[in-house]
Amino acid sequence: MMGSRQLEYFRAVARELHFTRAAEALRIAQPALSQQIRKLERQLGVALFERNNHRVELTPAGTALLEHAERILADMAAVEDEMRGWAEGTRGRIRLGGARGLTARLARLLAEFSRQYPAIVVELLEMNTEEMVAGLYGGRLDAATVVRLPPQEEGRRLESLPLGEEPLVLVTTPSGPLAGKYRVPVASLDGVDLVCYPPGSVIREIVLSALADAGATPHIRFETREYSTARAMVSVGLAAAVMPRSVAEEPGQPVGVVRLDPEPTWAPSLAWPAGRRPGPALAAFIDFMARHPGLAS
Asked: Where's the HTH lysR-type domain (predicted)?
């Protein structure tokens, strides 16, 4: 039977794809690590890595084992955290994925959560929804503020808690022709230069879907993962952008904020793995977020 140490050794090599670096991260000798991996491969009857003089790569069996290893080791860490929580009071560590448009509001809530639960450490990682869902499935995240869950997974592999709804708005240069308007049709964005977000961003999907529904052809001139970068480009007149209203109204470079008709919205949720009882730290965080449902309103 595989042991947790074998899985930790395998995961380290799978992440580094380099035996020497993995051995250094594990603080063991490289020959000992190689011996343990060969032993695991003999035990399982499959090759986990393709090796040659220039590189190390996962085999298909190794890729499958990595997903299981990430989840198993995360579960074991969660058990340890839960036992410490029961023994010492609510304490532990939460690896939280955060949507970029929620960072400012989430930071304020995390400050209050930390005051109420000073023994719980929250590690916040900014990601897009695709990355967060993959992190939840792979055991790399305990929870995430995702914008849209895959419909077939909600309630089966992931539990979720709605966090409110917020409109997306058009952001333009203050001197642009649309800046002085209160509301404009989405169709008026046909052919307008836009700053958009890369594939994997749900905000991108919402924006492109709204444009398509209005019969507008997007002209994506720039792509960025950061709202601050999009706002900087807008402020100097390079393009317009669509983003959450709370982000558009934050202090920063001067821009015009215009409502859209029809108004696209985003509705974030807190998501966590289903089928596994949350430990004390995560349970406390879920309860805290349930008592603060207006995160994105």
From this structure: 2-59
| Alpha-carbon span 289 to 270, nearest angstrom | 8
- Asked if residue 138 is part of any domain, the answer here is yes
Q: Which of 216, 218, 262 is nearest to 240 (CA)?
A: 218
Q: Could you read off the pLDDT of 204-252 as tens digits, one per residue?
A: 989 999 999 999 998 899 999 888 899 999 999 999 999 988 888 888 8
Asked whether residue 160 falls in the same domain as residue 276, the answer is: yes
**What CATH number has the domain bearing residue 231?**
3.40.190.290
Q: Are residues 259 and 189 in the same domain?
A: yes
Counting the structural domains of the chain, the total is 3
Cα–Cα distance, 67 to 235 (Å, whole number)? 43
The pTM assigned to this predicted structure is 0.62
CB-neighbour burial class of residue 188 (10 A; exposed 0-12, middle 13-18, buried 19+): middle
Q: Which residue has the tokens 């409502």?
A: 259
Q: What is the pLDDT of residues 96-117, one digit of tens each?
A: 998 877 777 788 889 999 999 9
Both structure tokens of 277: 């009882």
